[in-house]
Every structure is written in structure tokens, then in C-alpha cells.
């Protein structure tokens, strides 16, 4: 069983790939091969392939999990990974990568970087930022929405308030706050930028 600390280091890499429609069989075979190769690397925790529903626009989403940042980085910077990526160019028309750390960082604007983003901020920093941003938004939601929510069922009123807070939190609040507090959230990134 993993401890809380180990679980918080989990890295999820989401890869979106649009495949040439006439090369889907080749892509499926390639996917099996690269997934088998990833399993040989330390820290690999699993892969899930979400296949397209629209055959006119065959976009696959591949979700790869590693137990921590370093193991994920080892895989992505390995010659094995680079060879598999090179061999996929003939049937991939478009590809994007996104690293999804755990917790509130899903709302954060990460510093510009290479394929791998820096490790997520310390847990206590995520909590501080969460309280610092969510509490004022709840107060604002109560102030602005309460007059309009009178008479509605309590659960429906709460759903509307949560939707209001989540929408503002996702944009513009969290991107703005994480941008101005980037020096605190990502100190190692700030130090590298000064050099």
C-alpha cells in the first residue's frame, strides 16, 4: 500500500494523438509496442487508451501513469521513447502532451517549460493558495447570487454557487494568482530563470 506522500508524487501524462484514418491498424500495433516498452521502465504504473468514437477524426487519448516525476522523466528522455516517437511520425498527424499533477495544480498555470513541467508545488502551498482563492470567491458568490437563489431548493442553489466559484477559479483567478506567486510556488524554476 502506498503512503500519502508517495501517492502525492504520482505523475499522469495525457497524450492526445490524431491518427491518419487509413493507418489506424498500424497505430494500434504501435500503441501495443510502446506500451510494452514503457512497462519495462521503473515506476511505470499503467496506461489507458481511450479510442475515438468519431472515425472521421480518429483522436486517441493515451493516459500514462508513473509513480513520480523522475521515473516519468527517465521514460520520456530515454532513447527507447525517442525511437518509438520517431517511428510514429508516419501515422500521427497531430500530437499534444500534457502532464497532470495531482491536487489543485490542475487549476494552476504552470511555468513555460519543455515537455515535462516542473514538479508540483508543496502540498501546504497548494492548500494555502486554495484557501486564499476559494474563500473570497465563496463570499462573492453569496453576495451576488443569494438574492437570485431565494426560493430555490438548497441543493440546486448550492450547485449554482459551486458552478460560479469553479468557473471563476479556473479562469481568471487561479491562472492570475499562480502567475504572480510563481516565485513562491516554483522557486527552483525562478532560480533557473535568473541564471
Structure description:
The structure is a single chain. The chain is of the alpha+beta class and 195 residues long. The protein folds into two domains: 4-100, Alpha-Beta Plaits, CATH 3.30.70.100; 123-194, no CATH class. It contains eight helices and four strands; from the N terminus they run αβαββααβαααα. It has helices at 4-8, 24-39, 69-76, 79-88, 123-149, 154-180, 182-185, 187-194; strands spanning 11-19, 44-50, 59-66, 92-100. The chain has a four-stranded antiparallel beta sheet. Helix 2 packs antiparallel against helix 4 and helix 5 (123-149) packs across helix 6 (154-180). The longest helix has 27 residues, at 123-149. The protein starts with a helix and ends with a helix. Residues 1-8, 101-106 and 108-117 have low confidence and may be disordered.
Termini gap: 41 Å
Series of secondary-structure elements, N-terminal to C-terminal:
HEHEEHHEHHHH
Strand content: 15-25%
Helix segment tally? 8
Could you say which structural class the secondary elements and strand pairing correspond to?
Answer: alpha+beta
Can you give me a brief rundown of this structure?
The chain is of the alpha+beta class. It has helices at 4-8, 24-39, 69-76, 79-88, 123-149, 154-180, 182-185, 187-194; strands at residues 11-19, 44-50, 59-66, 92-100. The protein folds into 2 domains: 4-100, Alpha-Beta Plaits (2-Layer Sandwich), CATH 3.30.70.100; 123-194, no CATH class.
Amino acid at each position: 500500500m502506498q503512503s500519502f506522500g508517495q501517492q502525492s508524487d504520482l505523475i499522469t501524462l495525457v497524450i492526445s494523438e490524431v491518427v491518419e484514418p487509413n493507418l489506424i491498424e498500424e497505430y494500434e500495433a504501435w500503441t501495443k509496442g510502446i506500451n510494452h516498452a514503457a512497462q519495462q521502465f521503473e515506476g511505470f504504473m499503467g496506461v489507458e487508451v481511450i479510442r475515438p468514437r468519431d472515425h472521421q477524426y480518429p483522436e486517441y487519448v493515451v493516459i500514462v501513469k508513473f509513480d513520480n516525476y523522475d521515473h516519468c522523466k527517465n521514460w520520456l528522455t530515454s532513447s527507447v521513447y525517442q525511437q518509438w516517437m520517431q517511428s510514429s511520425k508516419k501515422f500521427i498527424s497531430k500530437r499534444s502532451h500534457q502532464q497532470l499533477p495531482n491536487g489543485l495544480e490542475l487549476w494552476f498555470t504552470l511555468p513555460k517549460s519543455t515537455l515535462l513541467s516542473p514538479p508540483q508545488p508543496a502540498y501546504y502551498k497548494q492548500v494555502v493558495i486554495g484557501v486564499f482563492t476559494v474563500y473570497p470567491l465563496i463570499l462573492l458568490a453569496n453576495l451576488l447570487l443569494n438574492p437570485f437563489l431565494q426560493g430555490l431548493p438548497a441543493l440546486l442553489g448550492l450547485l449554482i454557487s459551486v458552478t460560479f466559484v469553479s468557473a471563476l477559479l479556473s479562469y481568471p483567478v487561479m491562472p492570475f494568482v499562480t502567475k504572480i506567486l510563481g516565485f513562491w510556488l516554483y522557486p527552483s524554476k525562478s532560480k533557473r530563470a535568473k541564471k
